[in-house]
Amino acid sequence: MAEKMETDRVKEMVYVIADSIYSPLGFSTKENMSRVSDNISAIKRVDNPDIYSVPFNGAKIVKDAKIVRELSDSFTTLERRILFAVEDAAFSCRVSLDTLVKENTRIVYATTKANISLIKQSISGLPAELFPGESAERINSYLGLKRAPLVISNACISGINALITASRLIERGDCDNVIVIGADEMTKFVVSGFEAFHSISPTICRPYDASRDGLSLGEAVGVVILSRKKEYAKDNDPIVIEGGAVTNDANHLSAPSRTGDGLGMAMLNALEWGSTSASRVDFINAHGTSTSYNDEMESKAIHLASLRDVPVQSLKPYWGHTLGASGIIESIASFWQMRNSLLLGTKGYSELGVPMEIKVTSKDIPIELNRCLKSASGFGGCNAAIVFARESATTDRVKSILPNDWHEVSHFTLKGEGDFDSVIRSIYKELEMKDIKFFKMDNMSKAGVIATASLLKDFITDEGKNPFDYGFFIANSSSSLDTDIRHQNEILTKGDTNVSPAIFVYTLPNILMGESAIRFKFQGENTFFVTTQERKSEMMEELMLLAQDTLLKVAVIGWCDVFEGRYDIDLKLCKRD
Q1: Which among 17, 53, 260, 576 could bridge 93 via Cys, Cβ 3.0 to 4.6 Å?
Q2: Cβ neighbours of residue 546 closer than 8 Å, sequence gap 6 or more
């Protein structure tokens, strides 16, 4: 047992010192927000068979910035956009990028599919930059950063998850500055999957409206630079990150909870982490995808978190759903509203179409804004919420007990190459599992479920178990490439209008946590990281620290990778008092 640590500490203040949005609306925050404030949407008809064989509405970057086009072809289009946005963001703070690079600065990169467009024609000879960890290393190396990057791939909450992780790194004293990146492209790979779910609107999405009929997809890069050094911010009253939290519905892989309890708890935990309350929140920048069940669930979560009287907005009618970038660019838009004392309306909204009353309006409202709660939800049942505030509105520099260290309860390892199916069936039989859906999963999810079942086999659950005390912190190097190849094979053999939604949902690596969360009722923090194979040992150690910065009491922590017939599972069940 680890000894309880009684040392108190004052959390470091985490300042937003710079930001940039790169999207179809412009190549800087200023350009983007100028168009948004003029009520201009980037969502238009996309008639491009390289993206999808049937025209649809989405927000596609038609022509990149000149500097992006001129960057070396050794970088992918997405990497070039990221590098441009990082440099643009650095121009807006009181310190140069060179200075940040020389200091203790890290990258936290949020993405769902990164450079997935590289397999659009073929699945043979996969380039290194297709692996998100490798791509992050390329960006890190170009910028000259000495610390290893962190890549978060947690479906549509990736951006908010990255901001939460980055702020905790600074609070803990791991680093002085963090460059938080959110980036994804619009590709045939992604569009075909969402079309398979019949979830794309034939017009511009209308969040929370009675006539909403689906989401709009988009592509973008967002960059937020965080620092513990107030003097780096140009604002006299800079925006700070007060706190954030992640939860899981433990309910369904592709449909949100019907009760809203997972997102509601994420909101409550974010407020608690930031030592603030619902009554002090001025507006909610919500996920607002405009799908029937997501918007319904959010309305219930808002009520569960006692936020029913707080104005709610979704900005997806401007940029579409930009996946891993969405949480970042929508957070930047929230900063802009706070700095400009203007609450933006939800474009296209007319009549409330969700079961619980929430305060949505289509009109922009001039009003002083000191605090924002930003939320997101995604496939795999994941939810995230984060609280931003003006420093002048943040009255408490809260002292907190340093969390106890983890101690290992059980350990599961499985490594090999070849007949993975036979190996997993054998363990399944030994565990005497009765799970009719188990063999419909992808291999990585099977590995995660089998490992978690093994870890919990002799674990005595505390009486009155709170499912939000249980979570996952898992990493690998291949992301979900095994299933990505299956999905791409379907596109190549059946056509992009005939792919399986049941396969597409597994092209998100965090789904392995979602599958286990459903079976074992783990509703606490769950984050999936991607790194390089060379950094496995280093990442395993860091996962323990990252999980320590949460409210979890029990966690499955470690490595789970299945790719090209090779499998490497190294997971621990850890507990703390």
Answers
A1: 17
A2: 165, 168, 473, 527, 529
